[in-house]
C-alpha cells in the first residue's frame, strides 16, 4: 500500500518517503483506510457520495462536503472550510467508504452544518501551508521556554498551524487544571498569530507523536488503533504477568493497550480452572495453591507446614480432589497424585553455530608447517637401442 517513493531502491536500501506526508496513495500515513472500492463503478443512476475524508497533521481527520462536485481523488491537496479562514489538508478517502467511516465515527451524512471543501489547493496555498509547517518546531521550542518561565505545570507536546497561517493550535498534557491565560497573551505577542490551547490525554499524545514500542514495531495507537479502552492491572493478573510498572507501561506512561488483546482468551481458559484460593483437604494437612500454568493446565500446591515444597497437580486432579472434599472425604497426600505427573525430560543440546566451536578463538594458533614435497628423481630414458 506504500507509494513508489517509499519502496526499496536498486541497491535494496529503503528510499524513505520524500513527499513529507503527501503521498499519492496515502499508504505510508497513519491510520490509513485502504479504498478497496476504487476500481468498482457505481450502478446506473446513482450519484457518488458528496463527502470526503481529509487528513491534516498527524492523525487528525475530518469529514467535508464536496458541494461544488469537484473531481477529487486520494492524495489531492485541498483547501477546506475552517472556523475562521481556511485550512489545507490531504484527501485520504472518497466514495462510499466515506459513508461507512462517518457511520463508524457517528457523524450524520445529512448534517447541514458539515464544513465544505472550497477548492483544490493552488500553488500559493501550498507554499503558505509548507512555510507554516516549517515554523512549527521553532515555535514549539519557544513556547515551551515561555511556559517554563511562567512556571506552569504543563507539557506542550505538539503545534499545528492552520493552512492559511492565521491560527496555531497548541496541544498540551497536564495532571491538573492550568491557568494559561498569561501564556496565551505572551505567545500571541511573540508569534503574532491567534492561539488555541487544546488539552489531550497521554495516550492521545503518544498517538500524535508516534514511536517504536518494546515489541519493535510502531505504536498501535499511531498506526491502526482508534479507540482507547481502559486497561487495569487486573488484565496483567489474569495473564499471570509480573506487576512491574517499567515493563507494563508504554511510552505514554500508562498501561500498554496490548494487555487487552489476549485477555478474552485467558478469561475463557480460566473458566475451567479451579479458583486461585482453593484449599485441598488431605490427611497430611491443608494444601494451598502457589502457582497455576494455564497453558500446561498445571497447578502447584504446598502444605501449610511446608511452603517451600511444591507439588505439581493437573487441573483434572485438583477438580477431583475438590469434589471429594465437598463430600467430606480427604485424600492421603498430594504425593500420591504428584507421582503420576513426574516425567523424565532429557535435555538435548544443538550446535547453533554450525561446525565452529564457541571457544575457537581462545586456543592459541598453531604454526603451520609447510610440507616440502620430495621430488623423486625419474630415471632418464636411455637412447641406446638394442
As laid out across the biggest beta sheet, the strand order is 2-1-4-3-5
Distance between the termini: 92 Å
Order of helices and strands: EEEEHEHEEHEHHHHHEEEEHH
Q: Which structural class matches the secondary elements? A: alpha+beta
User: Quick one: how many beta strands?
Assistant: 12
Rounded mean pLDDT is 82
- Give the oligomeric state: single chain
As for the number of domains, it is: 4
Major sheet characteristics = 5 strands, antiparallel
Radius of gyration: 35 Å
Shape: elongated
**Percent range for β-strand residues:** 15-25%
Poorly predicted tracts of residues: 18-22
Instruction: Provide the helix percentage.
Output: 10-25%
Number of helices, where a helix is a run of at least 4 consecutive DSSP H or I residues: 10
Structure description:
The protein has 386 residues and is an alpha+beta fold. It folds into 4 domains: 1-120, no CATH class; 127-205, 2-Layer Sandwich (GMP Synthetase, Chain A, domain 3), CATH 3.30.300; 229-271, no CATH class; 279-340, no CATH class. The protein is built from 10 helices and 12 strands. The chain has helices at residues 96-104, 123-149, 181-191, 202-209, 220-223, 233-238, 245-248, 263-270, 315-326, 334-338; strands at residues 51-55, 61-65, 77-81, 86-93, 117-120, 155-161, 167-173, 194-199, 279-281, 286-293, 298-303, 311-314. Strands 2-1-4-3-5 form a 5-stranded antiparallel sheet. Strands 9-10-11-12 form a 4-stranded antiparallel sheet. The protein has a 3-stranded mixed sheet with strand order 6-7-8, with helices on both faces. β10 (286-293) and β11 form a beta hairpin. α2 (123-149) packs across α3. The longest helix is centred in the middle third of the chain and has 27 residues, at 123-149. The chain is elongated. Mean pLDDT is 82; it is low at 18-22.
